[in-house]
Amino acid sequence: MALYVQKYGGTSVATVERINAVADRVCRFHRDGHELVVVVSAMGGETDRLEALGDDISSRPDPREMDVLLAAGEQVSIALMSLALQARSVQARSYLAHQVRILTDSSHRRSRIQDIDLQHLRRDLSAGVVPVVAGAQGVDESGNVTTLGRGGSDTTAVALAAALSAHECQIYTDVQGVFTSDPRMVPDARLLPRLTFEEMLELASLGSRVLHPRSVEFAGKYGVPLRVLSSFEEGSGTLIAGEDDSMEKPVVSGIAFVRDEAKITVQGVADVPGVAHKILGPVSDRNIEVDMIVQNVAEDGRTDFTFTVARSDYDNAIEVLKPVIKDLGAGLITGDNRIAKVSMVGVGMRSHAGVATQMFDALARESINILMISTSEIKISVVIDEKYLELAVRAIHSAFGLSKEQVSEE
Amino acid sequence: MALYVQKYGGTSVATVERINAVADRVCRFHRDGHELVVVVSAMGGETDRLEALGDDISSRPDPREMDVLLAAGEQVSIALMSLALQARSVQARSYLAHQVRILTDSSHRRSRIQDIDLQHLRRDLSAGVVPVVAGAQGVDESGNVTTLGRGGSDTTAVALAAALSAHECQIYTDVQGVFTSDPRMVPDARLLPRLTFEEMLELASLGSRVLHPRSVEFAGKYGVPLRVLSSFEEGSGTLIAGEDDSMEKPVVSGIAFVRDEAKITVQGVADVPGVAHKILGPVSDRNIEVDMIVQNVAEDGRTDFTFTVARSDYDNAIEVLKPVIKDLGAGLITGDNRIAKVSMVGVGMRSHAGVATQMFDALARESINILMISTSEIKISVVIDEKYLELAVRAIHSAFGLSKEQVSEE
To answer: Which value does ipTM take for this structure?
Structure first.
C-alpha cells in the first residue's frame, strides 16, 4: 500500500463520460489498497471560456477578480469528480484551496505556494476517504482566491505529493508519456520509460509540452518521483526521478524543438562592457522573453550581437531596439522570423565527448545550415531555418538511434 | 446619501451585455452618492446547467458536493460584475460567502443564515468600494460550502440589508414589479406601488413568482423595506414594507393563482380525533406538500376529508393512501387532477365585510362552480375547475376594480 497523488488535466475531465472513466481508474487504485489524493483541473475548454468572458467585459481585467472567475472552473471539476467517486461507493470529499488550506503569496494569476495544511487530508486518508483537491488555486493570508498560473494543477499535485511524502505524483494527460521526440513529427519516436528531473526540465522548457517546467523544478527540488501517463490508455508512462547510478545513462534522451522563433542581430556593436545589458534591458522591460544569446568574436573592436525571441514578439523587439542602436552608435539591425530551434537533451552527454559533433554531422549530411548554437551541460540547441525543422529532427533522432526499431535491435 | 443592497437575478446577468447594463445602473447609483452592496445570482441557465452535470454523474448526488458545484455559478457572476464595475472606474470587490463571511448551518442545499460578519463590507463601504457578494451561498462552521436553496440570492440580499440596516433592499428582476394579477393573463393588470409584507407573503406563496416567500418573511421579520423592480426598464417598482397607517388600505391588492393542482377526497371517514393526522401523516412522510384541507360536517358519524396537492404528486398521494383507508375503514378515494386555485389578497379585507360574498358573486355570474374554499385574515382562496381559471381571474380582477382604467377613473 502506498500513497499516490494523481492529477487529471482538463482533457481528462472534459466531459461527464471522461470524468466517469477517470473515476473508474481512481476506484481501481483505491480498491488495490492505495491511499489516493486526486487533483483535477477545470474541464477542458472551461478556463478559456471563463477567461474570454472576463476579457469581454474588461480590456485590463483586475487579476484579483480574474482569479475568482477562473477558480470557478476547478470548483466544478472537484465536485463532479467527488460525485463520480461516490457513485462508485468510494468515499470522496472535495477541497477548495481555502478548505485544504493551500496558502500562497498574493501575486494574482501567478502566485506561489507557501504552505499546505495537511490536517484535513491526513484525516481523510486515514479514514479511507479520497480527497479531491482543486488544482491551480490557492488562498492568500487575507483569504483572497489566487491562481498559480500556467501549469498550476501540476504544481498543486507536486506540492501535495511533496508535503505528504507521497510514493509518486502521477500526472495523467492525453499522451502516453514523454517521447524521444514529438510522435506527430517523428512517427517512430519511442516512449521514454525514465528521465531525470534535469532532462525533463530541459525538454519541458524546450517545447515538449507534456509538463510545465515549474512543476518539474518543484518535483526535483523535493525529490518527488513524477510519472506522466495517459488517462485514456493503459501503460506505465514515463517516470521522472533522480539520477539512478546503477543504470547506464543514454547519451541522448530526447529531441525537443520550438517553432515560431525569430532571431535579431545588432551589427557593429562596440565590444565594450555593458553593451549586452544596454541592448537586452529595453527588450526585457517590454516583457519580451529572450531565449538564446550569441555574441561573435570581435573584429576591430566591433562585434555582432544576436538573440532569439518568440516570433510574435519579433516586430515589437525591433521597434524597441531602433532608438537603442542610435544611442549605441551601432550599425544595422537585421533579423529573421522564420527560424526554429532543435535541442538534444541527455544526462549522458556529460560523460560523452563528440555528441555535438555527431549532431552537427547529421545536419550537414542533410545540408542544413546551422544559424546559432547554444549548449549547456546536458543540452545542445541549434537554430536553423524553419523549413528544415522536420528534416532536422528526424535526422538527429535517427543518428542517435532513438527510434523504436533501432532500440529493439540493440 | 443612503445605503442600498441591490440584488440582480439570473436573467439580469445572463449575458455579458446584461452584466454591462447592470453595471451602468449600479454606476449611476454610486455616482449619485449612495452606498451600495450588490448581490448577484448565477448567470441565467448556469445553475440548471451545473445541476444537470451533477445529476448526470450521480442519481443521488451528495448535497455537500452539489453545493460546491452550484456555488461556482455565483462565483463567476461576482467576478464578472466586479470587472464590469471596475471598467467603469467604480471601485468594486467580489466576495464569496467564506470571505464575507456568511455563516450558515450545515444543511446542504437548504441552509439557513446564522450570522454575517460585516467587517470587510463596512471597510469597503466607508472607502467608497462596492462589495459584490455571491448570492445564495454560505459557509458552515467547518468551512464547508453551503447553499440556501430556492430564492437564495434574495435571502442573501435581505440578510445583508438587515445586518447593515440598509435604507432599502432592491430586488431587480425581469418584471416591473408586483401586479394586481399576472399581466400575461390579465392584460389590464396594474402595477402595485406598495404592499405590506403580509400581502406579499400571501401573494408569493400563492404562485406570484416575483419573490420567494422566504425572503419576504425574512424582510418582514427585520423590517427591511423591499423593492421589486426591473433591471431592464426604468420605474420605481413595488415597495414592500410595513403597514402604513396613514393610507387607506385597498380591500384587495392582488389576485394570485396556481395551476397544476389536484384534489383528493377520502369519503366515509369516521369523525373521530386523529383521523386528519392518520390521513395526512403518510402523505407528508413522502415529502408531498399538502395545501388546502377541508373537512365536511359529519353525518351519521362519518365525514369526507378533502385536500389539495401539486398535480405532479397526485398519483403518488393516492398510492400512499390506499393502505391507509383500509386501516381507517374509510370508503372510497376520489380525486380530480384538473383543478386550479385562485386567491384574493389584501390587508383591507380585515375591516371590510362582504369581500368573500362579492368574490363568490363574481364567479357565480360567470357560472363557475366553487369546489373548495379556504380563508385567512387577508386572503380568500377558491378551488375551481382548471378550465375556468382565466375567466375566473379576469372576472374577480374586474369585480374589484383592479384594472388600470378603473383605477384612473376613480
So the answer is: 0.84
Per-residue pLDDT, B137: 97
Whole-number pLDDT of residue B303:
83
CATH 3.40.1160.10 domain residues, chain B: 3-174
Kindly identify which residue of chain A lies nearest to residue B93, measuring between CA atoms: A65
Q: How far is CA A85 from the centre of its chain?
A: 29
Strands A168-173 and A226-230: parallel
Predicted model pTM: 0.85
The reply to whether residue B61 touches residue A83, judged by beta carbons under 8 angstroms, is yes
Query: Which pLDDT does position A100 carry in this prediction?
Result: 97
Per-chain mean pLDDT for chain B: 90
Alpha helices in A300-354 (DSSP H): 314-328
What residue spans in chain A does CATH classification 3.30.2130.10 cover?
255-409
Q: What is the 3-state secondary structure (H, E, C) of B108-120?
A: CCCCCEEEECCHH
- Side-chain-side CA neighbours of B402 within 13 Å: the count stands at 32
Q: What is the pLDDT of residue A246?
A: 57
Q: Mean pLDDT across chain A, nearest whole number?
A: 90
- B65–A86 CB contact, under 8 Å: yes
Give mean pLDDT, residues B264-272.
86
> Can you name the CATH fold of A255-409?
VC0802-like (3.30.2130)
Architecture of domain B3-174: 3-Layer(aba) Sandwich (3.40)
- Using a CB-CB cut-off of 8 Å, the residues of chain B touching A84 are 57-58
Of A20, A53, A79, the CB nearest to B16: A53
Q: Which of A61, A62, A80 sits opposite B53 (nearest CB)?
A: A80
Distance of alpha carbon B51 from alpha carbon B57, whole angstroms: 10
CB distance A67 to A147 below 8 Å: yes
Contacts with B66 from chain A: Cβ below 8 Å: 79, 83
Contacts of A145 in chain B (CB under 8 A): 96
pLDDT of residue B247: 60
Q: Do B80 and A57 touch (CB under 8 A)?
A: yes
% of chain B surpassing 90 pLDDT: 67
